[in-house]
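Continuing the batch. This is chain 6 of the set; chains 1 through 5 are on the previous pages. Same settings as before, nothing changed between runs. Recording input and output for traceability.
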Amino acid sequence: RPVAGWQDSLRPGEMVGAVLVTGDMTVAGQGTVTYNDGRRILAFGHSLLNLGPVSMPISKGEVLMTLASSLQPNKFANATDIVGALRQDRHSGILGVLGAQADMIPVNVAVRSLADDGSVRSEKTYSYSVCVQEKFTPTLMMSTLYNSISGVNEFGDQTTYRLNGTVEMDGRQKLSLATMQAPGELPSPAPLLLAGWVGDRFNRLFTNAVASPRFRRVNVSGDLLPERRVAAIEGAWLSSNEVEAGARLPLKVFLRPFRGSRIEREVELKIPAGLAKGQYRILLSDAATLNRMQTAAGRANRFIDLSRTISLINQERSNNKVYASLLLTGSTVYYDDKVLPSLPASVLNVMQSPGSSTSFVTSRETTIEQASIPLDCVVTGSHSLTITVK
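Output for chain 6:
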């Protein structure tokens, strides 16, 4: 919101800032005002990002230091009070309107550092606003979140990061954010991979071809856990491979952590009453194995709308759980955010006909029952068992 006295700001020759992020963190492009008619200003004499019509705040600026150079001198400056909004970003300069207001996304981030016993050693909170621009908002969300998480003193190479949050939008639509990221063998630091995961969600919201998202606020909390918490599914065990329909089947799942002794967990899977006799497969897996087909279906349709994009992302499983799925042989169709299990062959043939314009992904198995075990670590891998229903 423009500050009081904006009418007398940004005279020719003064500094002006085009603000992409403001608050506890600032990202802005600084330049010089060339024209001011009391309401509109022209500045820079070159483009900011050459985006054309835009909407982002413009601010006053203060020069802290000039770095002299016969090749390319530079000024170090701060963006200060917001006094209007940038409306045009063209090849030959930028145009701003004094007193105007640009839409921004309020973002609140809480970062906690946890001790080995789970107690909170320290906590920091950040509050900033991010401009709305389909190409740059995902990147700005990623960079601000990365700097918020990695900027604490407890950051370490073997630290695991747990993130939870919500993205609230107009129309009471809400996107849930929940994931963990542990350091791996790749050179990219874990906080950057975590921030990239969040940026990907925003990118998917903006790239839907039907409607632009309108944001109300973003609230995120991140926990720093003092060890590399990752476990791979190593195997599973059943007391008996034969079971009756309607019974509850206990399973033991074995996981191998990065360091330490093997982890053993129990999960109970319900066998549906009336299930036909025969052999069935039980899949113990991580979230990525189950998300793969549905995510591919959502990306296959470039005309998926915003509400279905939100629904699709909210249906993704969390990577800190082990999932036990009872599968039978039969086609499952993943279409946008919908799952069509045990689809009859006649219906599938119609959907696969050459004249159909429907984009979908097909699996040869159908999930008829599923259970999960929450763990405080990143779960990877999968393992299969075969049971016989008597």
